[in-house]
Records
---
Amino acid sequence: MKKRILPARGKLGVLIVGINGAVATTFIAGLFAITKGYGKPIGSLTQMGTIRLGKRSDMDIPKIKDFVPLADINDIVIGGWDIFDQNLYDAACESKVLEQKDIDPVKQELSSLHPMPAVFDNYYVKKLNGTYIKNGRTKMELAELLRADIRDFKTKHNIDRMVMIWCGSTEIYMGRNESHNTIDNFEKALQENDVNITPSMIYAYAALMESIPFANGAPNLTVDIPALTELAIQKNVPIAGKDFKTGQTLVKTVIAPMLKARMLGLQGWFSTNILGNRDGEVLDDPYSFKTKEESKLSVLEHILQPELYPELYKNFYHKVRINYYPPRGDGKEGWDNIDIFGWLGYPMQIKIDFLCRDSILAAPIVLDLVLFLDLAQRVGMKGIQEWLSFYFKSPMHAAEVYPEHDLFIQLTKLKNNLRHMMGEELITHLGIEYYEE
């Protein structure tokens, strides 16, 4: 049965934390270019992807954007916060992700966008020194200032619906503790300026209190704590995270399932990266790197399930390195050496050198998450959206299950969720089998 889906009427406000960063400016400049007919949304499942309906022989394969009632990208209105006071044209030029020939045609649109002052504390991102920040006596007061920004933005631009997405930097490693367990504990911690409440959590709290879907593109805990998950359910708001799945980890979620599918063993997986943008600089701090490392290391354990296949995957060695190298800019290089073994234990190797562009890979993820989270809210979905795990390195999940990291299982789950929304039969890939009597 088809779900009741509210129509995507009016304007969709997209509030971005870290709006002057490389990921955000690449997304926004690209969005303007696409809506003006200067470019194509390559990498976006919502804009270019298809979905099969019924049997293969039916050949009913519409585009996803023609199948589910997504918001029109022409109805998106951009706003957000940053720790540097700079219009988005200057920020996009400074990021050096896109070439000038791709930025200049949308100069007017980018130049008209300025960030709001951010909630920021150098304690949580030690490599950055924000100069355009809010002041408040307590973290609760800062949350109220963000909520006022949200309401003002909605009124000023006559916004019908909103989504907030974290494109900010990786914060220092933070484990869950008592202040994260309940809404009451969390709000008390906000009032008391508890060190365990990070800036990203303040943004997430403000979004949820204003009934706005929230996605976390960094490996920070942020909304992945019981208090904010509970708040999302109370407020009927969908949430998703963590950490955009772009370069090296994207490759891991393809290669590791191949090894397990063929029952090939793994002795070790060494990964190193060089990256020169603001993200690379932030991750040069060991406390922020620890947060990213936890996100990247968890992938193989969950995919390979060594507890089920100890002969193949018990005690494999996994090492991840990220090195800040300014000359490389946004053009990250991810290098993997994979030591595997096969029949009778004979050793083999796989070597991968992925010269990718982090922000180019992340930009379409931002667009898809915005559109899918807006759709989820109009369907009436709330809390953790596991069907959006496809987009994250460290996907949020229900407490009683392990996270699914296999890219192709994630994609199947995402598309089946869309089929379910629209009352279509789920695809199980069971074909017609013929048996002799």
---
Amino acid sequence: MSMTSQTQMTQTPRQPKTELKLSAMVQPHFYTFWRTKRPYSILLGGRGSFKSSTTALKLVSKVKRMAQAGHKANVIVVRENANNLRDSVYNQIIWAITQLHMTAEFDYRVSPMTITHKRTGSTFYFYGADKPEKLKSNTVGNIIAVWYEEAANFKGPEVFDQSNPTFIRQKSPYVDHVEVIWTYNPPKNPYDWINEWVDSVRGDSDYLVDKSTYLDDALGFTTKQQLDLIAKYKDNDYDYYSWLYLGKEIGLGTTIYNMDLFHPIKELPSDDPLSCLFTSIDVGHMQSATACSVYGLTAKGKVILLDTYYYSPAGQSVKKAPSELSPEVHAFIDGVLKQYPRVKLVNMTIDSAEGALRNQYYHDYGIRWHPVSKKDEATMIDFVQSLLAQGRFYYLDTPNNAVFIDEHRRYQWDEKTMESDNPKVVKKDDHTVDGFKYMVMDNADRLRLKG
């Protein structure tokens, strides 16, 4: 046997390369976006429409092509808040890299947050628009693309006006232009700034404006479980479904909550035991009430309002001090817990701006309330509406809980602010309402809700 033949017999056979088919990854709906020569693309649409995953795939593909040619190519990725980067766009880019079988070709860092191609130094840079100085002072060079994710959550178009010139000025010499991409879910409010801004650029030959929904899934990526959940939204609250999944600007209306989605029950379900408890409090001052509620989460995912404490100082010449409220609230919570001795209280949520009662309670009982990280009213309301639209909220129909239902029934947008990009709620008799928002937001992960 010749040496050549022997060598051929002893060598490990090469593994066949896995063939990548972008047509199996990119929805046909997005072919126009994928191939566009326009410098600016705005992708809007409902949840689950694949606009963000498609954008991530396109950006990684662009870097891959540049790297294969030996060129350095940088991409800027921006969200409204730096705290949201890692769990969203950072992981989305990693997902796209994995899909293109390039995982080992990159280094991944979170401080500073970058993903860098080892051979060429091509880098994905991640920034929060809440730190504009980092955007305006950006000097990375060789930029081929910029991605603004969840663009509707930015403060306004001035963020783009101020940062885009900085990025475009640092264009890579190997591309004709820096590709700028915006992705977002349209706000309910037709007067929101982003709706008006997008309308202003429609028809501009430099801009591609595309709308997509989960119904554009021609590749069968949407799972049965996802479709079942979407069907729940559609059956329980069609308007909310139209906004969340179809990306429609449904308007606000004056009444905020659909009260048909607050389901009264006389007793807890015998076939669906409580798995844990939550409590939340909205603390009033002077003429404002203090409201504390206890909720149970069942094994099947129902959220049940169990009991409500409500103290209003209105009409009383002497108001209760934190030192008086603290033992009353504690006695209320303790009384509810004794009714469910085998169920653990896992979280106690309070307004982050409230310090007096929180400090008093810790002084009295050594127990810390968890201050919720509040957002704007519309965002906090969306958390609650998402829970309601899934048909999962119930309340024990008791006298103590009547104030909770009454306040939610009367909760409204301020009509004078509805034709603006920053609508306000009527701040009156909304104490259980605020407490409910705090609880849902603070426990969104446990309640299986997206932020």
---
Amino acid sequence: MTINKYISTAFLALFFTLSFAENEKDVVKTDSTEELSKKEMLDNSASTTNTPKEDVTPSILSDVITEFVDNEIPVDSATFFSHVNTLEFEISMDYNSEVKRLIDYFGTNWQAKLKQMITLSDHYFPVYESVFDKKGLPLELKYVSVIESALNPYATSRSGAVGLWQFMPYTGKIYNLKIDRYQDERRDIQKSTEAAAGYFKDMSMVFDDWLVVIASYNCGPGNIRKAIRKAGGKTGFWEIYPYLPRQTQNYIPSYIAVAYLMNFYEHYGIFPAYIEKPNAEITKITCSPNHNLKAIAEITGMTVEEIRTLNPPLKTDQIPGNVVTMEINLPNDKAMIFLEKEGAILELSEAYKPLTTEVIYTVKRGDSLQAIANRNGCSVSEIKDWNNLRSNMIHPGNRLKLYL
């Protein structure tokens, strides 16, 4: 295989740093223990953004579970291909016993969650499709997010993957997502999708099978390269399938099963779940580090929880101190109050402004700036700013100022 000379800088960092590690935990989904936790996360996650399908009347939005004989969806290869051949997918939709097994699982055991995914997709999929279209990527990559997070921006795995696209911290930062004590852009629908698109685009320049590209999202490029070597240089997904980690062997059939059911659910008498619609009319307002969510909530008549629900990336009540300005979402009527009473909000924000304490940390053997940042809820860039560091190099005995 050759690497296209136009591969992005982000990809080069990811590929050459991580692709040769057999079980690298900081690539998107390479931890082999993740299979159990992913299933638990999908089964238990509670979506926080509730927007029902506009084109389906409430009378057919239902929480009733459709029963099937022996918990099997009545689909065979002929039915499957008669359906998928009507789709304009660029990614191969294959059918075999593993795909059938997972169609049965998602259509029966997971049906309640599937119904929610169908409903929530009207909120998330237009954003996904817009980003993928601009990148020239197959729009059906959007279904990867369903099996990654069940469309829950707050989804968090045991190994620390977060958000709709379940980025690990290192990989997220490679793709320009801010992750610090104030915010986590892995939870931002637009920015995290752009990061996922960047990953897919980069991997598509290395692997010539879209199913393999998707598989690399689960197990990392290193495990894909290893499987290709074991397969004697063959590069198709089903050719390298026996040599992939078990969770990745399940990952692609899961992707196909979810993509199939989210397009043909009505054929099997499955209908979207009804989810009560919140205020859908949202306005972006510009804030600075002088604004505090408690003050915004108090003056506009909202709760902090309501503001957080509309702004998943925010981790604290204080607008990030490491930005000049940032936009947050508010309902239209509350945004008008914000603009009318911003002076009062700023005054009250001063009272709510959190106090920081300077701590002197002595570097120990084996420490890195990233490890110190992770332990103290700050970012590497903040530590470097606080201590006028030009590089990430530190030595045992160095004293660092931390503001916590």
---
Amino acid sequence: MAINSAIYSNVYNYYRSELTPRSSSRFDSHKKKDLQDVYKSIVNISKDEPVFLLDRSKELEDYTIHMKENALAFSNNVSSIIGSADGELFTGQTAYSSDPDSVEVTGFTQKTTEQAADSEVSADTANTQYELSVKQLASCQENTGKFLDKIDSDLPGGNYSFDVSTATSTYELQFTISDGDTNYDIQRRMARLINNFNLGLNAEVVENSNAESALVIRSNSSGDRESAGGHFIISDDNTSQQAGIVDYFGIGEVTAHGRNAIYEVNGVEHSSAVNDVSLDGVFNVSLKETTPDGKPVTIGFKPDYEAVKDNIISLAGSYNDFLRATAEYVDVQPRTNLFVADMKNNSRYYTSTLEDMGVTQNDDGTLSVDAEKLSEALKNDDRTEDLDTLKNFTKFALRKAKGIQLNPMDYVDKRIVAYKNPTTAHYANPYVTSAYSGMLFNSYM
């Protein structure tokens, strides 16, 4: 029996909407050789890994995935501080915004001459500077319903439904109203229904000072889609169950259309459906607030010692986030304490020589940086040895993070069944790279 292709399309769109992709950075993209090296490393680990039994619980899955994600986030943060995945620590320059509250720099690239020739972007990116004015931010569509008495309701009980049409498909949402349900009860139930279906919409119930509540529905995506009918349409004109609920709550009217971001770069106007934009492939920036007329935000690179200072402060912050996120699992998986203790002890070895630069270690293993002391220290020309110590510390932390990325099962409480003979050559099973191979693609769709 032939199956209509529209059915496949609806099924795909429904399950695709269930996925909540993790925001990725440019450091999540790799060359073929990088992926081959990762695969070989995992295979080599599995060769000598002892045979063990695991508690296949949801808590264990969450633990191993979060450990891997925390390590990956730390590695990516360090790469963004450097400016490239294989860059040199504490050298060169870093991007800055003269008003990060209005325009935040989220990434940058210092291209080589060969890269610049290929991309038709000037190779002298170190001297690149942009004057950026934000005229309008990109916004989403919003349908704000009527404010109604929270404890009252004029809707009779029964089965109701309404249709939600998006750019990809149309869905009918059904629910039942019982006698005695208040406006507030029904609005909250409708909000949960919309949010649980992951339609690319976000719904919430808002209240005012008059003990009234309204249902507000917003699109997750931004940009001007007015000519295409908007980001979504809500109606119950042709629904299968009892109608009238859309007009009663007033959620069918668009109260704010989606808008494009409008901004000027060096006097030239541009438009974007989102607030995250690229400036000639050199800077990635996030538009946060409109800027006053005649006061553009300057985007460029900072002088060397300022960049180094900011890199060290950013590195300490990323390291602290990584250590704290890992330490949260000590009670869940006690062996994690071995990793935390190892990080503390090795950090103390490095930071014991950096106090004159303003870098010290706290009792919990996190790092503190005295910005003024660090700034003064960096202006001296005899700090090469101290910077080398910081480089070695960072490389150590990255090695530990990479170890967790490759095999987060190292710190899991597991029952060892048998150790492999260390004097015997073991063969890797190419189909079982490690105990967590099923987690490799978690949240990367």
